[in-house]
Amino acid sequence: MAFKKILSYFKQHTLLKITSLNSIVIGIRLVISFFIQNLLAETIGAVGIAKVGQIRSVLAMLTSASSFGIFNGIVKYTAELKDEKEELQKMFSMAFLFLLLGTIVSAFTLFVFAKNISVYLFGDNSYISVIKILAFIVPAVALTVLFKGVLNGLTAYKKYAKIELVSYLLSSILLIVSLLKFSLFGVLIAIAITPLLQLLVIVFVFGKTLKQHINFKGVKWNTPFAKALLTFTIMSVMSTVLLNYIEIDIRAQIASRINEAEAGYWTAMLFISKNYMVFSTGLFTLYVMPKFAGIHEGKAFKNQVIYIYKTLLPLFGLGMLLIYLFRNFLIAIIYPGFEAMEPLFKWQLLGDFVKLIAVVLSYQFIAKKMLVSFVISEIVSLGLFYFLSIYLVELYGTEGVAMSHLYRYFVYLIVVTIAIWYHFKTRTNLKTED
Fold first, then answer.
1. How far apart are CA 231 and CA 210, in angstroms?
2. Would you list the DSSP string of 153-214?
3. Where are the domains of the chain?
4. Span 122-146, pLDDT tens digits
5. pTM of the prediction?
């Protein structure tokens, strides 16, 4: 009887349904990723882990650059216009033109400057071929962004979960085979071609639905949607491109000021962090942003935020507490020989918890295209992270970078809260005047 009540409760709450399904997918991913990270740690060591971190950061930047940073725009307008086919096609038409431009620029840059990029990322030109492979993969990256945006906008969380799981399984197999056959070089190649696998899985699982919503025929320029999507471009440049560039630079700073192994320890900590935080990323795009897009009153926004916090924060808090308590066990199992990363856990976990609180609020910026608020808050956040990291690494070593992660999000939370309070206060004043 109790089980039926629990099941009925879950069915009535979309966020819980998405959360529970995501939990299964993330759980499977975590088990596989822990095995892979253990294999990487024992095979290529901390120095190799640092190099893997560099290529993953480049791929994250490429995901934004190749799509002109309009992923969140695609999610927003698909959610809002899914019943208005004509307007939806205008948006997709404009999105395709943006993707085409982003793809050409990104691919050209990677191919022509492959040597310079290789030297900057890895310290030598041994990995030029990896960069050139990335250049050819760029179209797949851009199309994956488009299709995932549609998935999220339609809140097709079951298909999204299936795609994420199958894609991850295939990319993991590819990475393991490449590691065993070609060591570090093979790993970098496998990571570079992962977007192609993701695209194939999306087309196979979601192809019929995509045909119903997307029509690439008669692509035309649409100025209103161009202006609307450009807002998301600016946001993406701030939140994705700059962040990953800063991570690349901080990793290089740690390697030069301390040693490359320490850069590997920080990268390993980031990997653990990103594995559990990816759980929230799906929730934000599948649930939070579409919900916020339809809310126009301060009270309704407050109620929705409280509901999200009551649902998510206890789950995340418990998970993070368990990770901290078993941190030494995790290091021994996943990263044997990486004991030096233990002091990073408390700062990273606390920072991620505060980040979760802040990011839930900040999705209002994206949902309502609050460009000025978004840009100011991101500049404050990224600026603090970079300069505090450079300063604190001199005082506390690699631990100083993890400390700056926490400090940055405390300030970010304050800035975001003030911006949203001011936004709704202004709306209330305008209505009163009317």
1. 25
2. HTT-HHHHHHHHHHHHHHHHHHHHHHHHHHHHHHHHHHHHHHHHHHHHHHHHHHHHHHHHH-
3. 18-433
4. 888 899 999 999 999 999 999 998 8
5. 0.84
